[in-house]
Specification:
It is a single chain. By secondary structure, this protein is α+β, with helices and mostly antiparallel strands. The chain contains seven helices and 13 strands. α2 crosses α4 and α4 packs across α7.
């Protein structure tokens, strides 16, 4: 596997402000201050327009979530194969969303808990804590909010839209895999680590075997690669080098085949 960390090069620290015509479309009476960590790890506070070139998706979380009496959600984390970091999750829903981001071939870097949006508006105040910040293969920066059932969800959404417009972020809804896709992702995710990545020659052998659709375990058996073959196959499914019918459960007996990878490395997904 190629070094996933190489995708997350640090961005510039001195971003530009919004142009005057862009500022004119933002509510003048809304004040938002974004708390996040600098590249050196210090907590800093800036207005949204100063974050246009700041790679928040590469920054350390402001804090780790902690358990407390009465908490309804389960604290957990996800090791991100995309950029080789641990992503803290405040619920199993957020962890499933992290798994889907890790699998998404368009996402090259993401992290949770890296920023807080402290806002004041029409005599009210509060804090919005997005679930994730991410960067796409073509350089777009995404902010992904938690699903909110709070009474003031409409206001939090307005804060987020105000901030995203000023900071140059795109808002993406929190997406969670369901049904058979969730089960398939969980199965593949066990083999997402670099230890299951085949060498180039081995990878090509497997891609040649699955040049036409055939059952997963059958292809692994005829590869001549021994016990390691199955792990390599599952890893190639995770990266997208091998593909399958996502509407059906992914089992050892499932028919799989070689897909069209995004590049010539082993990095299809994540």
């Amino acid at each position: 596997m190629a070094n996933r960390n190489s995708r997350c090069t640090c961005g510039q620290e001195q971003p530009g402000r919004l142009a005057p015509d862009e500022q004119a479309h933002l509510p003048a009476d809304m004040d938002v201050q974004v708390h996040y960590r600098s590249a050196a790890g210090r907590t800093v506070v800036h207005e949204p327009s100063l974050l246009r070139d700041i790679p928040l998706e590469e920054r350390a979380p402001l804090s780790e979530p902690h358990a407390y009496r009465g908490r309804r959600s389960i604290l957990t984390n996800w090791f991100c194969a995309t950029n080789g970091v641990t992503v803290w999750c405040s619920s199993t829903v957020q962890m499933d969303a992290a798994m889907l981001l890790d699998f998404d071939p368009d996402i090259v870097c993401f992290q949770s808990g890296v920023a807080e949006l402290h806002w004041r508006y029409e005599g009210r105040q509060g804090t919005v804590r997005p679930a994730f910040f991410a960067r796409t293969r073509d350089g777009r920066r995404l902010v992904i909010p938690h699903r909110s059932a709070a009474r003031a969800a409409w206001l939090e959404e307005r804060v987020l839209r105000h901030t995203a417009a000023a900071a140059g972020w795109q808002i993406r809804p929190l997406q969670v895999p369901g049904g058979v896709l969730h089960s398939s992702l969980r199965s593949m995710a066990h083999f997402r680590g670099a230890e299951f990545a085949p060498e180039a020659e081995t990878r090509q052998v497997l891609l040649d075997i699955f040049a036409v659709p055939r059952p997963m375990q059958e292809g692994a058996a005829v590869s001549g690669l021994g016990l390691q073959a199955a792990g390599h196959v599952w890893h190639l499914l995770w990266t997208g080098a091998l593909v399958f019918d996502r509407t059906l459960p992914l089992l050892p007996t499932s028919r799989i085949w070689a897909g069209t990878s995004i590049d010539d490395s082993s990095e299809g997904n994540g």
